[in-house]
Design brief:
The structure holds 2 protein chains of 2 kinds. Chain A is of the alpha/beta class. Chain A is built from 5 helices and 5 strands; from the N terminus they run βαβαβαβαβα. A 5-stranded parallel β-sheet of chain A has the order 2-1-3-4-5, sandwiched between helices. In chain A, helix 4 links the parallel strand 4 and strand 5. By secondary structure, chain B is an alpha/beta fold. Chain B contains 5 helices and 5 strands; from the N terminus they run E-H-E-H-E-H-E-H-E-H. In chain B, strands 2-1-3-4-5 form a 5-stranded parallel β-sheet, sandwiched between helices. In chain B, strand 4, helix 4 and strand 5 form a beta-alpha-beta unit. In chain B, helix 1 packs across helix 5 and helix 2 packs parallel to helix 3. Classes of the chains: A alpha/beta, B alpha/beta. At the A-B interface, helix 4, strand 5 and helix 5 of A face helix 4, strand 5 and helix 5 of B.
Chain lengths: 146, 146
């Protein structure tokens, strides 16, 4: 069931401008059963530069999974999602939207832009950790990643 | 997270009656109210989704579980048609298949599958996987219910 060969950690790209949310997510993933490495991008532009290995990111590994906030400074998460999913080199990487927004318009738009899943961030820290743990269990332990 | 009165409508596209029965059993115990509809081949699945013929009055599913190897119309074709259809592509499609072939995994993500899960042969493991799908997609994910 577990997809990864024992040696290679799963590379997770977290696109998140809120430092507290980033810390909580990283900490929850550190405790995961499946070995993984989290890289953080705090703006949409930085995320796309990493994904395209531009400039200082020439040696950044390709992520196996992307966790994407929608409300980002500069280039919005929706625009980042759209760019990933029209890019033939990137579009097979699963993108889980993790956002404070539960607006139905954001949900349907994200799925139409081919988000792989949409998760609303609980405000409560404990509930937030549980949501990240659930994402980890499903995407790192159950799913076969490309 | 979609609690409330309205059950979540799930379309299972599966030609193996044993697997369909097991999936139904696992989902029956779910925390979140749901209703499972089964289509046993790809043509019937698309007729269901488009409400054709005998399916005129069926609800639009909130989630699709799709086997790849199906009679009449293959699961890959069904996936491709769903994800090219503006009225359907927002519905998450989780591939649930025995195939572990890297080619099938890569192709499914390229065709916009939301997640790819392999069916374990072992009964207990199979139930565990269906419950994981249920937990993540019915309790954690925000589905687009339009």
């Amino acid at each position: 069931m577990t997809p990864t060969p024992p040696g290679a950690p799963i590379e997770v790209l977290l696109i998140e401008d809120n430092a507290d949310d980033a810390t909580l997510t990283t900490r929850a993933l550190e405790q995961a059963k499946v070995r993984n490495r989290v890289r953080l991008a705090v703006t949409g532009l930085e995320a796309l530069a990493m994904l395209r290995r531009e400039g200082p990111y020439a040696n950044t590994p390709r992520p196996d999974l992307i966790l994407l906030d929608l409300n980002l400074p500069g280039k919005d998460g929706r625009a980042v999602l759209a760019e990933i999913k029209v890019d033939d080199e990137l579009r097979d990487i699963p993108v889980v939207v993790v956002t404070g927004s539960s607006a139905p318009a954001d949900v349907v738009q994200s799925y139409r832009l081919h988000a792989n899943a949409y998760v609303t961030k609980p405000i409560d820290a404990q509930a937030f950790l549980e949501a990240v743990n659930s994402i980890e269990r499903f995407w790192l332990q159950i799913v076969r990643l490309p | 997270m979609d609690a409330g009165g309205v059950p979540i409508e799930i379309l299972l596209v599966e030609d193996n009656p044993g697997d369909a029965r097991l999936t139904r059993e696992a989902l029956r115990d779910a925390k979140v109210r749901n209703r499972l509809h089964v289509a046993a081949d790809g043509v019937d699945a698309l007729a269901f989704l488009r409400r054709e013929g005998k399916h005129a009055a069926v609800p639009k599913p909130d989630l699709i579980l799709l086997d790849l190897n199906l009679p009449k119309k293959d699961g890959r074709e069904v996936l491709d048609e769903i994800k090219r259809d503006d009225g359907l592509r927002h519905i998450p499609v989780v591939i649930l298949t025995t195939s572990q072939a890297e080619r099938d995994i890569a192709e499914s993500y390229r065709l916009r599958a939301n997640a790819y899960v392999t069916k374990p042969v072992d009964l207990e493991q199979f139930l565990k996987v269906v419950r994981s799908i249920e937990h993540f997609w019915l309790e954690i994910v925000k589905l687009s219910r339009v």
